[in-house]
Amino acid sequence: MKLAADLKNIQKHYDLGAVIVKALRGVTVEFPEGDFVAIMGASGSGKSTLLNLLGGLDRPTYGEYILGGHDVSQLTDDELSRIRNQMIGFIFQSYNLIPQYTVIENIEVPLHYRPGYPAISSKDRNRCIDLATKVGLADRLDHRPYQLSGGQQQRVAIARAMVNDPEIILADEPTGNLDSATEEEIMQLLEGLNNEGRTIIMVTHENLVARRTKRQIYMKDGLIAGEGIFPG
Amino acid sequence: MFQTIRTIRLALKSLMLHKLRSGLTMLGIVFGVFSVIAMLAIGEGASAQAQKQVLELGATNIIVTSVKPPQGAKKDDASTRVLSYGLLRSDYDLLTSNIPTITKGIPIREIAQEFRYLDNTIHGRLAGCTTDYLEVNHLEMTRGRFLTESDQKYMMNVAVIASEIAESLFQYNDPVGKSIQFNGDYYKIIGVTRRRTASAAIGGSLSGQDYNKDVYIPLKTFQVRIGDLIFQRQTGSFSAEEVELNQITLQVRNKDDVIPTADVIRETLGQTHGDKQDYAVVVPLELLKQADQLRLIFNVVLGSIAAISLIVGGIGIMNIMLATVTERTREIGIRRALGARQRDIIVQFLIETIVLSGTGGVIGVLMGLMTPYTFIGIKLFVDKFILNKSKGVSEVGRIFTEMEPQVAYWSLPLAFGISVGIGILFGIYPARSAAKMDPIEALRHE
Ligand SMILES: Nc1ncnc2c1ncn2[C@@H]1O[C@H](COP(=O)(O)OP(=O)(O)O)[C@@H](O)[C@H]1O
Ligand SMILES: [Mg+2]
What is the model's pTM? Predict the structure, then answer.
């Protein structure tokens, strides 16, 4: 089985001068391609830190992280940017759309940073429209984020995460700000993406959400405490 | 290329997010660029004016004038009440015959005089001169002819009158052939000169000349009929001045000879006049060089003042861009998460700054182009509201009315370039600080 991401004894320390915060204290975990994982655990247990490392937003202090054949801990800042652009799709709890851009422009943002900076072709444009249609926003292309509901904004974010056809989608509490009906819509979208074969790693607090994934990882104090729903 | 156009479009989009703020920020650059162009235009106009004046005097001319010596100098002559000073006919002969580089000399004797025809009178300037006066002073005839050699030789009682004299004494009649009366004699009018713009004063030694209230007669006629001695009635007592010539205009063979010839003239007159200080030598070519130098100083001083306002504008831009970067920390985090490299962030904010300052620059250049027209407005205002106010105020006002700004076309790309440069200079720091942010922290920013 091919691995989408492979972490070996990953540690992440924050040096705050007086103290060193050990946010991750030796995480070893494998994510096969096509996996659908929920990361759970108490607040402060290191979930977001792990997700950020997985997404190449930061480098581990110790340990080895192999993503698509590269050891991420050795990459330069520019190379990390390229990894984020080409291999990762991010979905955030607070949507994180660019407020002055329309729906279609927000979906296009990752295209601006493709390697070699090719111009956005009409084919690219059509792909963005297709993605917007897929997440149910075909009639909102020229709306701005403030004109959309939370669920709609999160769907824009999902379309944006898909635009560069990434291997892995990382979602940090994607339904944390949404009501249960909207949560259901978002989960259906993510399930659909997973069924297409995409690896999805998602941080969540909600048992109902976690139950719909293939695998649950429980974190505690910067370590993986167990797998499956509520071990022990 | 497409990349740049797209980035500029997106930059505009971000700037439009805060229209008022962007507009106000731009204003600093607009006025900076405008003042650079306007200041240089004023300097350029002043020097062009000075050059025109000097060239009107003739670049190959040297002008020697009589100067009333400082009052103390003639104290012991006070009893006679005759003040005798100035250039002598012998000076004229000496200069024109002994200095080979001088090709022509025009001696002039002038007094203020009242002229009469029938019941009409007018005050003007009576000048005794020679034939060459016409050409050297760029005068033209509208009727009749100017003074000739034979008028001179036979000391004819003939006069050439200027346009304003003709208009006020003869209205619509042809003055030629009629007789004008002054100083107790009648003079037959042989010609009328065309209206000519007055020449402005230059330095302290050459006063401005209004050629339109002149009457010209042969110098010899002046000497014989009017003489050197002029009486003046001054509150109860008489005083008299004895002057042979008021001015000698000397024409030099070519430009290279002007400066050395002027030195010889100063030396020659220094010997005959001793320390009387009753003459001055004005060399237009020297004035031209001074004017050039003055322009340089003018441009540097005015240009620096304007440049300071540009820098102030730049600091304003930097201030706003720093605020923008802080405000858009989240956006920076998002872009970084989606794959933007540090360089991409720098380019983005730098282009935003350049679009801001460049747009300001374009508006400033357009306003700068309007400088001469703006000045017409300023002059109208000054004419209407300031010139008739108290003396101090109207003096300041006069400075404006005398300005003839000329946009220096080289200053347009210069000012625009500076505005873009300011954008880069003051944009680089905010842009770099944006790019250096930690993406995770930036994403967490509220
Ligand atoms: N930039 C940072 N500087 C210092 N400590 C941090 C930083 N980021 C996270 N931490 C610490 O690391 C631990 C894990 O944080 P996080 O991964 O955000 O937890 P979770 O997402 O599970 O709530 C917490 O104790 C947090 O305070
Ligand atoms: Mg978290």
Answer: 0.75
